[in-house]
Amino acid sequence: MRKLIFAITVLFIFSGLNLLANKTSVDIKAPATIKKGSEVTIIINVTHKGNSKMHHTDWVTLKLNGKEIKKWEYTKESLPATENFKVEYKMTVTEDSTLEAQGDCNLHGSAGPKTIVIKTTQP
Length: 123
Hints:
Layout: H1 2-20, E1 25-29, E2 33-35, E3 38-47, E4 57-64, E5 67-73, E6 85-93, E7 97-105, E8 114-121
Parallel strand pairs: 2-8
Antiparallel strand pairs: 1-3, 3-6, 4-5, 4-7, 7-8
């Protein structure tokens, strides 16, 4: 009975640790409105405590209207420059656009996607 209680306690502790784990999170910066046909620079700020060969952000994606348009990938041989970093993507906006960004930690996963909308105005 003691072994069962010990096993349940260990399982509970380790499952709780993942909830507290530092997952990669992102924030998207872009103008809320832009003239149709204009170029915009999308900035994705990536936050993650850990940047070593064993624990790092392994990818960041950017989707436009549900379709992946850019993916940055990192490995233990090509780590992000720092724990918290930014990536940029330039694009021409021709219609109202929904942008979604997400990052992933190789050990703990993602804090989830972030979404913004860019509205277009007439030139």
